[in-house]
Amino acid sequence: MKKLFVLSLCMLMIAMLFAGCVSKFDEDMEIKRYPLGADEPIEISEGEKQEILDILNSGIWKNEVWDCIHNRALEIDGRTIKFSVDCGHFEDNGKTLTVKGEWLDAAKRIFGEDFGADTMPATEPQNEKYNASMDIKRYIEGEDEPSMIPFSEKRKIAEILNSGIWEDGVYDCVHANALNIDGQIIKFSASCGHFETDGKTLTVEGEWLDAAIHEFGEFFGIPNTGFCENAEEFALFVEDAIAEKFGVSNFKLAKIKISVEDSPEHSSNITFISETAGDNGEKWSKSIPISYGTFLRLYSDQNPYVLFDAESGIWSEDVGVVCLIIDRYEEK
C-alpha cells in the first residue's frame, strides 16, 4: 500500500510538471497588437507573433492583479490583454505575468518604452503634494526653457519633492531654476541642498540629496564666489584646498583639465596637475571622477577639456566649481 501511495504521488508530480510546461498561448490563436493610444488593434507579422508568444509563455501567470495602470496591448482570440512597461506586468482576466530582464527588454521593443506609463500608477500616494501625473518639466542648467522628461524621472522627482517637509522661509543660497510643475517654478541649490518655491523650502540630505544631484547636476545653482574674479586668486584657493584635502605640501598649481575615456557618458575625470609639489619640487597630479552633468558644466568650447593653465594663461570662470569638487570628494 505504501509503495502504491508513493508511486501515485510521483505520477501526480510528473503530471503537474508536464502540465506546467504546456504553453498558455499557442500559434493557432489569433493575435493582434494595439499601438499605444490606439482604439483598434492591428494585424502583426508571423515573426512578431512568435516573439509575443515567447514573451507570454516565458513565465507563470499568477492569480493576482496589481495597482498599476495598464494599457491595452494585445487582442488574442477576441479578449484583451493589457501591459504596463513601468511595472513589467501583463494582465489577463485576473491573472498577471511579470516579465523581467531580457523578456522585459523584448516587450519594450515590441510595445514601446512608454507603454502603460502615460498615466500615474494607482500605487502612487494620492495625498502627497507632488505626483507624476502633473506636468513636470526640468530645466537644464543655463537653459532658459524647461524640457519634457520621461515618466520614470517624473516619478523620481516627485519622490524627492515629497521626501520631507516644506517649511516656511528661504535661505541665503543661490538657487537656479530646476523645475516647472504645472506652471510653478521650483528652484534648487546643490551646494545648500535646498528646493525653494513660493517662500517655502525643502531641505534634502543623504540619499535624497544624492538623488537630486543625479537629476539636476552636482553644481546646480552654485553661487559665484569671490575667488573666481581672477586666475591668481583662484590658483591660490585651489593650492590651499589640495594641500588640506590630500596633504600635499608646497603644491603649485599648473593646470586643471578634464580627461575623457571613450565619451563623456562613459568616464570623465578632472585632473589637478602641479608645477611643483613636496619638499623635492616634484610634479604631482590627482584625478577625480566626475559625472557627465559635471562634465557639461565645466566643458569649454574655446579651450576643450582645459579649465585652467597657468603657463598659457588659459582661464575660465567655470573653474570655480572645482572647489566644490575637491570639497565633496572622498578618496576610497
Description of the molecule:
- The chain is of the alpha+beta class.
- The chain has helices at 2-21, 46-56, 101-111, 151-161, 206-216, 231-246, 292-298, 322-328, and strands at residues 31-33, 71-76, 79-84, 89-92, 95-98, 136-138, 147-148, 167-168, 176-181, 184-189, 194-197, 200-203, 252-261, 267-276, 285-290, 306-309, 314-315.
- The protein has a seven-stranded antiparallel beta sheet, with no helix packed on it. It has a five-stranded antiparallel beta sheet with strand order 1-2-3-4-5, with no helix packed on it. Strands 15-14-13-16-17 form a five-stranded antiparallel beta sheet.
- α4 (151-161) runs antiparallel to α5 (206-216).
- The longest helix is centred in the first third of the chain and has 20 residues, at 2-21.
- The radius of gyration is 28 Å and the shape is elongated.
- Residues 1-7, 9-22 and 118-127 have low confidence and may be disordered.
What distinguishing features does this structure have?
seven-stranded antiparallel sheet, 25% strand, 332 residues
